[in-house]
Amino acid sequence: QNVNAALSMVDESTPQNEEFLADVLQGLSQRNKTLPCKYFYDEKGSQLFEAICDTPEYYITRTEIGILQHNMAQIADLVGPSCDILEFGAGAGVKIQLLLDGLKAPRSYIPIDISMEILESSAQKLARRFPHVDIVPIVGDYHKDIELPEGFLKQTPHKKLVFFPGSTISNFTPEEALGFLARIRKLLAEGDVLLIGVDCIKPTHLLNAAYNDKAGVTAAFNLNLLDRIADTFDTNLASRHFLHHAYFNSQQSRIEMHLVSKRDQIIRIEDKTVRFARGETIHTENSYKYSLHGFKAMAEEAAFETNTVWQDEDKLFSLHYLTA
Ligand code: AVJ
């Protein structure tokens, strides 16, 4: 049976700029200014993120790929034959290719991402490489309720594998992460799987280096958010008047990324005004780091069973195999 026949492309992205503007103004009108990190990933931002993954300091991507490669035979045995794979955030498709190659005859791949462009280019590539897998992209924001075509997940008699790599879960607060895990759990039936990558707590200098690469790619990535705002709206906002700042907040077990105003400035965005004092920051991202047992405890609270967890030799990163 062809899954494509049952599903059409779901596009929830129509009022894009209105929502972007509302989020920007809301974030910048708070006492502690913030911007949502999901807006990093326009075309330029997605390219910069790929470049971050190639910096020597940013261990996350290459370490997770190594863990996947090293343990693929065991993962395939655990999953068994012909599963349906769901992925939140489509990325560039490198990790999913490893899974589609390594698993035993996966039936379908359903990437869910806010960027239609990323979905389309990655879906095309995968469709050519994996002609026997149904590729069913869905445009959607997994920060909100995940609207999957009605009945689909409950109907299929095949095992579902939700793949959530890259430690994207790090962007949620622990409270939100628990809620997110619980929502995924409700999409699943007994025996289904969540395969999730989670970055680990490690010495502070390694964490700080990973978000302050020498080549300045992470800085460019952070500052690009301001360029995106400047390019999208009528505003005098300019990224050259801000600095990248990232550090590990050990109390909260998270990397914080900020944009620091270099000077007192009054920013107008469309018909609104925002004041910055010199040194004031916009908090643009949190990236929470977990111990193995800390993450397992959260997964169990969300009604998952913790089956297996793999790490690299240096214990930088973890890949958790959770079952519903
Ligand atoms: C994609 C959220 C896992 O937190 O490491 C990388 C994003 N930000 N460098 C991370 C990111 C700055 C990344 N995640």
Description:
The protein has 324 residues and is of the alpha/beta class. Helix content is 38%, strand content 24%. It has 11 helices and 13 strands. Strands 1, 2, 3, 4, 5, 6, 12 and 13 form an 8-stranded mixed β-sheet that branches. The protein has a 3-stranded antiparallel β-sheet with strand order 7-8-11. Strands 9-10 form a two-stranded antiparallel ribbon. β1, α5 (94-102) and β2 (108-113) form a beta-alpha-beta unit. α3 (43-53) runs antiparallel to α10 and α4 packs parallel to α5 (94-102). The longest helix is centred in the first third of the chain and has 20 residues, at 60-79. The chain is globular and about 60 Å long. Bound molecules: N,N,N-trimethyl-histidine.
